[in-house]
Amino acid sequence: MNNDQNCIIDYIEQQDDNIRPLLYQVHEAIRGVLPKAEERISWKMPTYWDGRNIIHFAAFKKHLGIYPGPDAILHFSDELKIYKTSKGAIQVPYDKPIPVELIKDITWWCYQTGNHH
């Protein structure tokens, strides 16, 4: 794990130019909800930690992966119907708007309930 505060920025800056702004949106959304969380790289993904891993995200070729854990996927299943999901993961295609408010809601729910990935 990398506990350097700029590790997530470094991760974003290493991604393709066209997806960097999208990743910054996600980073800012999560940071806005969890301003005191430690930012790490865990499992090669940006991770927000506060006594436990709360939520992760990662850039892939055609989509953004968000990893809030299986309980969050179940809890937000109605809101997530338009996205491909699996146990603990959400895929947001880059050709769709980033669901910033939904990401904030999921992040807050994971933090408040103790559910995490």
Secondary-structure blueprint of this entry?
Layout: H1 7-13, H2 20-33, E1 38-42, E2 45-49, E3 53-59, E4 63-67, H3 70-75, E5 84-86, E6 89-93, H4 100-113
Antiparallel strand pairs: 1-2, 2-3, 3-4, 4-6, 5-6
Helix pairs in contact: 1-2, 2-4
Could you say how many structural domains there are in total? 1
Query: Given the structure, what is the number of helices?
Result: 4
The count of DSSP E runs of length 2 or more, i.e. the number of strands, is 6
Low-confidence stretches: none
Class computed from helices, strands and strand pairing:
alpha+beta
Shape: globular
Helical content band: 25-40%
Query: What about the largest sheet?
Result: 6 strands, antiparallel
Annotated CATH architecture: Alpha-Beta Complex
Q: Report the top-level CATH class.
A: Alpha Beta
Q: SSE order, as H and E?
A: HHEEEEHEEH
For the biggest β-sheet, the strand order reads 1-2-3-4-6-5
Please report the distance between the alpha carbons of the first and last residues: 15 Å
CATH topology: Aspartate Aminotransferase, domain 1
Strand coverage percent: 25-35%
What is the residue-mean pLDDT, rounded to a whole number?
93
Radius of gyration: 13 Å
